[in-house]
Amino acid sequence: MKVVRLTNGRGYGGEVTEPAQPTIKVLLVEDDDRLAQLTARYLESHGVVVTIAKDGLEGQAEALRRQYDCLVLDLMLPGRDGIEVTRQLRARTDVPIVMVTARAEEADRVLGLEVGADDYVTKPFSPRELLARIRATVRRVRGQAGPAQQTIQVGELVLDPQRMSVTLDGKAIDVTAYEFSILRALAQRPGRVLSREQLLDLAKGSAELSFDRSIDVHVSRLRAKLGDDSRSPKILKTVRGVGYLLAGGET
To answer: I need a surface site. Which of 74, 75, 92, 148 has the fewest CB within 10 A?
Structure first.
């Protein structure tokens, strides 16, 4: 395990220094040492504290040992690949995960999202893009943890933003941070159709940072967790060619 120390950078590649942001702690799991060092150096120059792990097993252990704001996880890793690491972590933690893949196929991106990743970047990627995705993910999670957020109830579905918990008919439903964001966006607007672009914007704070079909994957997972028949959904309904809505009225 190599810990990259935070430095007082002055921008990158000619960019001006950005306004101060809340400290973000990132675990970067990458077996390519040169890429890891370059990525860490850029993130450091923008106020991010970075810890590097060089294989899947080490990364998984470190993610469970310490608290991080975001995990940047390569798909192809020695020891244990990124997909399996994500599966293992999702059983024990909701730490936001940005998957890094060298494959451009949509199937690989969708697979990462299906097992619990919150976002993705494809190699070769821009460090600036990665930083934007990390910040958007962390901003979303920190925003959900803010004070004085009341519970939201739609029928028998209850969301508690402070605890990031979901119950249906009194039964606790285990959801990831991103799934909670999508469900909350819909629950705050019951009966109203939201497009994929609107859901991306409401859930992540930046619609351009992901591909719109990722919403379909997360909605499919939410339906499975809520016991909502995907062939004839009663809770999360699809409006073909438009988007999704949460059925029912607020109580």
So the answer is: 148
